[in-house]
Amino acid sequence: MDSWHRNRLSLKQAELVETWLPGARLVNDCSWQLSDTVVLEVEHQGHRYIVKAGRSSNHHILREIEAHQSATAVLVHRKRAPKLVHSDTTANVLVAEYLEGCLVEGHESEYATGTYVQAGSLLRAFHEQTGSCDPGYESAATAKTLAWLEGPHRIDDSAASRAKVLLRAYKPEPVIVVPTHGDWQPRNWLVDGAELKVIDFGRYALRPAATDLCRLAVQQWRTAPQLESAFFAGYGSDPRRTAEWKVMLLREAVSTAAWAYQVGDEAFEKQGRRMLAEALEDF
Fold first, then answer.
1. Considering its fold, how many domains does the chain have in total?
2. Same structural domain, 17 and 157
3. H or E segment and range at residue 242
4. For residue 137, which of 43, 209, 55 has the smallest C-alpha distance?
5. What is the 8-class DSSP label of residue 99?
6. 94-145 confidence digits (pLDDT tens)
7. pTM listed for this prediction
8. How far apart are CA 86 and CA 51, in angstroms?
9. Looking at the structure, do residues 94 and 116 belong to the same domain, yes or no?
10. Burial code of 216-253, b = ≥16 C-beta within 10 A, e = fewer?
11. Enclosing domain of residue 179
12. Taking all residues of the chain, what is their mean pLDDT, rounded to a whole number?
């Protein structure tokens, strides 16, 4: 068994990959160092694939497998998302097709309006597949955010206290939940010629549609509002409702700042604290 199997995958995961893609050759290690998710580009019989794996405590692989089994077909059919080739939920490993393209983040396409028209159109297709009423989503999401505030973080005391007051005063109502990507932003988009493609469904879940807009709203749209207009030209409508949207941004800010602190990402932590200050101002 090749050394890349031993160094990056558990024995069970390595055995499965070798069974699925015998003799596969490692091309590139694309893993993000702040996460324990292993992401490997490999070549097998003239075709390239992405192998993703994680420890048993890693829930992102299971979410991605669930996404592929239930919701990505609408994008895969258009060749705008990778097709799942193999997976094993007990071993927490999957193999997906490799998609050609350049990462949009840091590329000239990151601030091109055409990128966002496509991003809106693709997200609308993803969201429109199904929808159901969830009476407990908002309560659970708010409770999770309060738990972040009780854990380790470097949010200043006044901001943390204000956030707790607002979250505890919030009166959740039932919401419509749809298939969501969970991290819809340029670091998970590829541009291939004129076409936009989407990768990494490791945060997939059924949530309100507007939650997929949080990352864009506090990043690219914040300094380039024309990109927001372009996105909604593709999406077709605006799913944000004022009261819920403000709370969504508040929850996103808290979780960003706390999570980034816990994994040691100082730049992202700084962004989270800035997001929190802006979210609190909106109240």
1. 2
2. no
3. helix 242-263
4. 209
5. P
6. 999 999 999 999 999 999 999 999 999 999 999 999 999 999 999 999 999 9
7. 0.94
8. 9
9. no
10. bbbbbbeeeeebbebbbebbeeebbeeebbbbbbbbbb
11. 103-281
12. 95
